[in-house]
Each structure stands twice: as C-alpha cells, then as structure tokens.
TrEMBL record:
One of its GO terms (biological process) is fatty acid beta-oxidation. This is 3-hydroxyacyl-CoA dehydrogenase. Its main location: other. CDD domains: crotonase-like. GO terms for molecular function: (3S)-3-hydroxyacyl-CoA dehydrogenase (NAD+) activity; enoyl-CoA hydratase activity; isomerase activity; NAD+ binding. It comes from Pelagibacterium luteolum. It comes from the Bacteria.
Length: 677
C-alpha cells in the first residue's frame, strides 16, 4: 500500500498476522517502488508494517514449492535502485527476509524492543536474500557471523549498538521515521560499503565454534561459509551464490522437517477447546523442591504473584532460597534486570501453611511423586481455596483421574507437567483428567503462553505423552544391555542418531530413582509375561542413583562419565541369570530398536486419544527429550522412512520386548503426516 505524507512516500506492508513476505506482498512492494519513479517531488520513502510487526520474514509456507516472481532479491534490488533514500521503520519483528529487506534499505529506524535477526539456520535454511552478504558490510564480520550462524534474535537496541540500526524510536514509529526522513538523508546502499577489517584467525575460530554449537548441521556450515565468502566477492556475485545455496537447501528433507516443526509448534499451542480461560493473577506453588522452585520462578518471571508453600519453616526457607538463587543467576547472566528481580521479590510470598493459598486463583502442587501424599494434599488444598480457583498437579506420570477424586469440584483440576529444569525447558504438557473442564484446559494454554512455554495437550495416561514414549525407549535400551550392548555403545549410537544425550547419560543426569519409583508403582499391574530388566533396579538398590550420588550407569571419577566395572559385572550377572549369551550389537540395530519402540508407543498414544495428533507428539519429543529437530520428530521421521525400514525397526523392538506390539494404525497416522508440507 503506497501513501504520501508531504514529500515522503510511505509504503505499508499489510499481510496479517505477521506481514509474512508472501508473493502478494513482494508484488505489492515492487509495484509501490515502481510508482515512486513516476511521482515527482518525493525526497524519501519509508517502508513500514501494518499491525503488530514490520515483517516476520519470507512466507515459510512457500518454501516447499517453486517460488513465484517477483522473488525477494528482486524487491530488495528495486529498493537499492530507488532514486530516493529508503528508510525501514521497524516495530515488532524484522526477521529473516524481513531483516534482509531492511538491510536493502538505506537506513533503519526501530523501536528498541523490536526483534531483528536471521533465524534461517534455525529452520534448516540459509538467508536467501542478502543476509550473509549485506550484514557483514554493516556490522562487521564477527557480529554478522554470530547473527547468521546462531540464528539468534536480538532487540533493536543491541542492533543499534552493532550499527545495524541507525536510530531508535521511543514514540510512534511512523512519526519518528518521518522526522528522521527530514534530516537531509542521502542514498546509502550497502553494496557501496566495504567490510571492516577483522582478525581472520579469530573469525575462523568463531565460525567453527558457532557451527559446533549448531551441531554441525548443513545449514549452519553453509551459512557460515557464505558469510565468510562475502569478503571475496562483490555484492552482486555474492548475492547470486547465496541465492543458489538457498534454493537448494530449502527443499532438503532437513528443511522440510524444520518447517514442519515450526508449524507443529504453533498448532500444538492452540487451545483445543473453545472455552474462556480464567484470569489468573496469584498462583500458589506447593512444594519448593528443585521442580517447585523452578516452577515458582517461571510464574514470577511472567509477572504473576506467587505464594510459595512448604511443609515447615526450614523447608520453606530452603525453597525460597532456591528461588532467590535462580533470580540471582539470571541477574548475573543479564537475563533479567535488577529492577525486574526486585518486582519478582515483591511478588513472592512464602508460607509454611496451605491456608496461605486461600486467595490464589491457581494452586499447583509440586510435591513428592507419591499418589497417596498428593491425594491428601489435594483434598486439603481444595478445602482452602475458593471453589472456582483452579488446581493443577505437576506430576510427571501419576494417574490424575485418581488424584481428581480427592478434589472438590474436580472440573477445575488438571495437569501442568513442567520439565526439569522448569525455568529452562520450554515444554509444558497440559493434561486433562476425565473431569477437567474446557475452561481449566483453556486456562492451562493461556498460562503456557504467558510463561513463554510450548504447550501440548494430553489426556490422562501413564506418563502422558513424553514420559510414556521415553519409558518405551528406555526399556528397549535396557533390553539391548541384556542382549549384549554396553551403556557407552548404546549412548553413542543414540547420539549418532541425533539425540542430544544417550539414554543412560540421561538416566544418570535426571536420577535413576525417578524411573525406579515409576517401575515400583507399576509393579503390581505389570504383565508377568512382559520382559523386565532388573539392571537399573539393582543399581538403585546399590545406591547408584546417577550423577547426584557420583555413580549410576557410569562412574564419575573426576566428574566425567566413564564405563563402570561394577555396572559391567551387574549386567554380566543379569545376562547369566537370564541365560542370555551376549552378542555384539551394531549401532544400526540399536538405533532401529530404540526408534521402533518410540514410534510404536507414539502410534498407540494416538489410537488411545492421549495425543490429539502426531505432530503434537513430535513437538513433545523435540522440545522435551532432545529428539533431533532436523528429523522432525518420531512421527515425521517414521512417515518419511522407507516403509520396510520402519516395519523392521518396529518388529525388532517388538521381538526384544517379548510381547506382540499393538502396532496401532501406524499407516493412517503416518500417512496424515506425510502429506503435510
Ligand atoms: N511465514 C509464514 N507464516 C508465518 C511466519 C512466516 N515467516 N511467521 C509466522 N507465521 C504464522 C504462524 O504460523 C502463525 O500462523 C501466525 O503467523 C502467528 O505466528 C528469504 C528464507 C514473527 C516472532 O523464522 O518467529 O525469511 O498458527 O504464533 O507468537 O532469507 O511468528 O496463526 O495460522 O508465531 O506473535 C524467517 C518466524 C523466515 C520468523 C511472531 N522468519 N516467525 O510471533 O506469532 S525464512 C522467521 C516468528 C526467511 C529469507 C528466509 C513469529 C514472530 P497461525 P506466531 P507470535
């Protein structure tokens, strides 16, 4: 949309909700720029976004198919060719192609909190419209590399400090851009700028560090190379090389998987019920252990009032100390300002009695994972709270229908399953009991949004979505132990698959006792015919609970994990007791069996209605369990595997489990995903 304010042209991008740079937007921009040439007396042009943001980037939905003209580089070239200086007036976000469009302008003015950056590598892409070529000319090679390869977003204030933003606007962005336009601007295209001199060795090591941090993914490597290469080409050649790399990489399976996850996250974030969320201002968190303190901190950071409750004064003091330590840590890391910390402290009350919860809009329990203890607390809590206050449990696997029986007005009770560490992990399972109301679940989704968490809806099931799939994966890893593989081999194979950590390293990190308690709780109902591995139980009985006790599946002589002869002896003894002749098991079989176990459990969760959709399961596994994002998630990866390879993986896992897997309707579930772009 082209308008005029005196001798200033104002071009407005208007494509709700985030002004994604669709084909229509690109055509509109080109038309508006073309019209400028026919208009006399115009001395400056401003490009601005309508609604809440400048331009969120190119339209990701277009990347799976041939891109229609005009493509973004052509629009940016038209900006650089525009006879008058062009100002990008940025509010909200200028990301990816949005930021590249702004880099094509002669000047950039922004609101200090506006977000800028090149997130492409985080989508398995490289910037495709000049980001790797223009940014080094503006901010220097090191800062450009950091932004391109890390895909991180920065606020415009930081952009201003780096030289990417010319002026900051603390008022109306258009008014301030008009004022800026009146300061005698001249054309200043970036292609005329040279890249400031830099220390080559330092830049090369920075590049290597950034690529390693991105797990060496192809997009990170290519983006780093393109950025470094900007030094060797004039801008025109560099742009052509960059565009060619972008066109190739955007249709790779990895890029498809990343885009799938992007949209899966947003779909999972939508409240599945059409109901009003309750307004929540004050939250009582009962139980301030590691999890409870982290959860309380999440609520404080999001601006809620928090009543921290523990069983006695000592426990309360310790719990409040944990919260304070989290505040101090974030101040030290400049993640929060001292002023924000102060208001958090003012919003935090501690009390050793659950009576203090009486005015809370939501009470959340994060106490010991024992059903009887939780039921007792929930009964007492529901008597203290007002009848319309919500009650949530942070249990990670216990039966929330059994808990709901202890709650008066059980429709207000639901699960808010945080992942440890609660203040860092993004995933939040919103769990419905059979009596949870739509309003309670809607409130859970509203809380997740305010906490900046990634919500996924789940119905009640042992372990909900994530822990149930992870338990199947861990069982399979333990079968592999009995069959002949060693912990380091299994962990290495699963890291080779792409998991952030191997299953035994995870057990040692999170503590073997958590799963041990889960198994003990299940003992009575366990299928006697099902294969059951006792190795982990024996480690727990021997006090080897993981890193926190200095030993688990591994020894930690100097804090580093090493294979343990004690564990080897326990494994050998179990093999003998089972009359299993250990055999060498290759990484391919390890990966296939572990993956097959995950997929089978995932499909069963869909069949049972515990998960609403396969993509939700993928969001859970990527956000909560370190499943490689570049594979999209277990369901997406399964949907795109060779069918024979998938069948073999599930069959291998089933044979090892010793029961016939209810394979579930894998074909339907996976076919649905396969057709998603
Ligand atoms: N393309 C298409 N749809 C998009 C989109 C995009 N770039 N960004 C958001 N949406 C949709 C999203 O799916 C959702 O749809 C709705 O907009 C609101 O999004 C050539 C190659 C800007 C910070 O990576 O980070 O440019 O669910 O819920 O919380 O070099 O959207 O409502 O149907 O996230 O207010 C680079 C991605 C692209 C930025 C706003 N850009 N977007 O957050 O809203 S690649 C990005 C975001 C590129 C060039 C390269 C966020 C946001 P629906 P939302 P939000």
């Amino acid at each position: 949309m082209l308008g005029f304010r005196g001798d200033v042209a104002v071009i407005t991008i208007d494509n709700p909700p985030v002004n994604a740079g669709s084909a229509k937007v690109r055509a509109g921009l080109l038309e508006a720029l073309g019209a400028l040439g026919d208009r006399n007396g115009i001395k400056v042009a401003i490009i601005i976004g309508a609604g809440k943001t400048f331009m969120a980037g190119s339209d990701i939905r277009e990347f799976g198919a041939p891109l229609s003209d005009p493509q973004l580089p052509a629009v940016i070239a038209a900006i650089e060719a525009c006879p008058v200086p062009v100002i990008a007036a940025i509010h909200g976000a200028a990301l990816g192609g949005g930021f590249e469009l702004a880099l094509g302008c002669d000047y950039r003015i922004a609101q200090p909190g506006a977000r800028i950056g090149l997130p492409e590598v985080g989508l398995g892409l490289v910037p495709g419209a000049g980001g790797t070529q223009r940014l080094p000319r503006l901010v220097g090679m090191e800062a450009a590399l950091e932004l391109v390869v890390s895909a991180k977003r920065i606020d415009a204030q930081r952009g201003y400090d780096l030289g990417a933003i010319d002026a900051l606007s603390d008022g109306d962005i258009l008014d301030d851009a008009l004022a800026f336009a009146d300061t005698g601007l001249a054309k200043r295209p970036l292609h005329a700028m040279a890249i400031a001199p830099f220390e080559h060795a330092a830049v090369k090591s920075l590049s290597a560090k950034l690529i390693a941090k991105a797990k060496g993914r192809p997009a990170a490597e290519k983006a780093a190379h393109l950025t470094l290469q900007s030094l060797e080409h004039d801008l025109r050649d560099g742009l052509e090389i960059e565009r060619a790399v972008f066109q190739d990489i955007r249709i790779t399976p990895e890029a498809f998987a990343y885009r799938y996850q992007f949209f899966a996250e947003r779909q999972a974030s939508k409240n599945p019920f059409d109901a009003q969320a309750k307004t929540i201002a004050a939250v009582a968190v009962v139980g301030l252990g590691t999890m409870g303190a982290g959860i309380a901190y999440c609520f404080l950071r999001a601006g809620y009032k928090v009543i921290g409750i523990e069983g006695d004064q000592d426990l309360l003091d310790t719990g409040l100390g944990r919260i304070d330590a989290l505040i101090e840590k974030d101040i030290a890391a400049s993640r929060i300002t001292p002023e924000a910390a102060q208001s958090m402290r003012e919003n935090l009350l501690g009390n050793a009695s659950i009576e203090a919860a009486k005015d809370a809009d939501l009470a959340l329990e994060a106490i010991f994972e024992d059903l009887a203890v939780k039921r007792d607390l929930l009964g007492r809590l529901s008597a203290v709270l007002s009848p319309d206050a919500l009650i949530a449990t942070n249990t990670s696997y216990l039966d929330i229908d059994a808990m709901a029986e202890a709650v008066s007005h059980p429709e207000r009770f639901f699960g808010l399953h945080f992942f440890s560490p609660a203040h860092i992990m993004s995933l939040l399972e919103i769990v419905s009991s059979t009596s949870s109301s739509a309003g309670a679940i809607a409130s859970g989704f509203a809380i997740a949004r305010k906490l900046g968490k990634q919500p996924v809806f789940a119905r009640n099931s042992y372990g909900f979505i994530g822990n149930r799939i992870y338990a199947a994966y861990r069982r399979q890893a333990e079968f592999l132990l009995e069959d002949g593989a060693e912990p380091p081999e299994i962990d290495a194979a699963m890291i080779g698959f792409g998991m952030a950590l191997g299953p035994f390293a995870v057990s040692d990190l999170s503590g073997l006792d958590i799963a041990w308690r889960m198994r003990q709780a299940q003992a009575a109902s366990r299928d006697p015919k099902a294969r059951y591995v006792r190795i982990a139980d024996q480690l727990c009985e021997a006090g080897r609970l993981g890193r926190k006790t200095g030993a688990g599946f591994y020894d930690y002589p100097n804090g580093k994990p090493v294979a343990s002869p004690i564990v080897t002896e326990i494994i050998d003894a179990e093999r003998r007791a089972r009359a299993i002749t250990p055999r060498t098991i290759g990484s391919h079989e390890i990966q296939a069996r572990c993956f097959g176990a995950m997929v089978n459990e995932a499909v069963l969760l869909l069949e049972e209605g515990v998960a609403l959709r396969g993509s939700d399961i993928d969001v859970v596994l990527v956000h909560g369990y370190g499943f490689p994002r570049w594979l999209g998630g277990p369901m997406w990866h399964a949907a795109h595997m060779e069918p024979a390879a998938l069948d073999s993986a599930i069959d291998l896992a089933a044979q090892a489990e010793g029961v016939t897997f209810r394979r579930g309707d894998a074909a339907t579930a996976l076919a649905t995903l396969k057709n998603q772009n």
